[in-house]
Write a structure and sequence with these properties.
Length: about 160
């Protein structure tokens, strides 16, 4: 499986990150389009994570920006998919007790990159699955990882830079 995301001068385009004009609770909410090639034939669903491991040096842990499961198989996950998808999406790190964001919608959808100090590399992982993950909306990352067991046919990841 191959993942492609169109970049602008090597960075995630502004409309999907901290420079977006479309925000809720000061967080960018328009998810970027993802193009997939060579999805295994026996794939039943896709799942996606977007995690900022560069955040570890600033906050002591990775920052989860997007968790989404049970995506119907498709080669193009379109722009703004997070706000239009009716399937399960998980809690991002804004749910943490270390933050005061009190917006249930933002916490359970794509909350785009907002690196505070310098460009960060975000890890986008796409999973091809042989069955549904059977997760409820608002699931946590540990539930996501547990549900992946014995369901992964293939997975790939790429790094996406976002301007700070």
């Amino acid at each position: 499986m191959k993942i492609t995301v169109k970049l602008n001068n090597g960075f995630l385009p502004d409309e999907y990150s901290k420079f977006s004009d479309t925000k809720l609770s000061d967080q960018p909410v328009v998810s970027f389009p993802i193009h997939l090639e060579n999805i295994p034939d026996n794939t039943k669903y896709l799942a996606v994570t977007l995690i900022d491991y560069d955040a570890v040096t600033r906050m002591g842990a990775p920052f989860i920006h997007w968790l989404i499961s049970d995506i119907p198989v498709q080669n193009n996950i379109p722009e703004d998919f997070s706000r239009n998808f009716t399937g399960p999406q998980g809690k991002n790190t804004w749910y943490s007790r270390f933050y005061t964001l009190n917006d249930d919608y933002v916490i359970n959808h794509y909350a785009g990159p907002v690196p505070p100090d310098k460009p960060h590399a975000y890890t986008l992982t796409v999973y091809a699955l042989n069955q549904s993950m059977d997760l409820e909306n608002g699931f946590f990352y540990n539930q996501f990882r547990d549900s992946l067991k014995n369901k992964i046919i293939d997975h790939q990841e790429i790094k996406l830079l976002a301007k700070g």
